[in-house]
Amino acid sequence: MNSGQKLLMTMTGEIHQPVRLYYEVYDKAKVLQVLKTLRCVQFDLDKDGWVWLFQSETKKFKFATPYGKIPKHRRPLVLGVFHFPQEDVMWLDVRSHQRATKAIVFFDRRIPRSAAQVTHAAIVNRLFGVTTATLPPLDALFDEAKIIEKDPEEILQTAAPLRAIPDVRERIDQAFALMDQKSREPLPDVEKFPVHFYEDGIKSFETALKLRQMVAFEHWQGNTEFTFGDIMQKIIPGL
Q: Which residue in 44, 66, 105, 213 is deepest, having the highest Cβ count within 10 Å?
């Protein structure tokens, strides 16, 4: 355990584990037009970005702490912040994986795919304790120079030579051994990976984030050697 330190949670009741969504922008004027029409989005000079708020169109979101339970003096609560680091790139930074999945679906219904599409996500693969300090600044956590990009399909490329093994049983054994090896590699502190929302829907992305939170939670409890491989062993005993 982290010396009895209390786990940091968001105001909406999720474990605080920041996520950055990356959008490829094809028509920035259209994206801005949509953001300006939403009552739950406002430009914030202090943050130099567009803040996504828990109000109006988002009031019905189902969080552990619903809108009606948020203290009035804390409203409107910021769910995330949009930035445009480049004309054709948009980031949305949020503080939980639940907010990230809700954001993708919410904005996909409002921003035309011809104007922008989500392509990648980055997640901080660790949890935080409650301190007297302010919340960790998201721009510092998502320092682009420190983000490690991973492609889950890389394992398929690594496994390609196994097709040449004539014996089926040996080929399967080698494939499982490779999967086990890859699954036991430690996760980067901040990991970026592709989001296949348009092909697979939101569930596969949601699962990817949940698995990373499971690993981060085990590390928080002191089991710092825990990896995806341990999750696989639980799902497929005797793997």
A: 213
Taking each helix axis from N to C terminus, what angle separates 228-235 and 202-220, rounded to the nearest 10 degrees? Answer: 110
Residue 9's DSSP bridge partners are: 15
Contact 97, 210 (CB under 8 A): yes
pTM, rounded to two decimals: 0.86
Tell me if 59 sits within 8 A of 67, measured CB to CB: yes
The Cα–Cα gap between 150 and 209 comes to 14
Name which of 171, 193, 186 is nearest 218 in CA terms.
Answer: 186
Q: What's the rounded Cα separation, in Å, for the pair 24 and 90?
A: 7
The model's pLDDT over 120-154, given as tens digits with 9 standing for 90+, comes to 999 999 999 987 566 778 888 999 888 998 766 55
User: Which is nearest to 235 in space by CA: 204, 211, 200, 217?
Assistant: 211
In which residue ranges of the chain is pLDDT below 50?
Answer: 155, 159, 162, 239
Q: In what order do the strands lie in the sheet with 77-86?
A: 41-44, 49-54, 77-86, 89-94, 19-25, 116-124, 190-194, 148-149
Amino acid at 208: A
The helix or strand, by DSSP H or E, that contains position 207, with its residue range, turns out to be: helix 202-220
Are the CB atoms for 81 and 100 separated by under 8 Å?
Answer: no
Please give the Cα distance from 144 to 141 (Å, whole number): 9
CA–CA gap between residue 231 and residue 214 (Å, rounded): 8
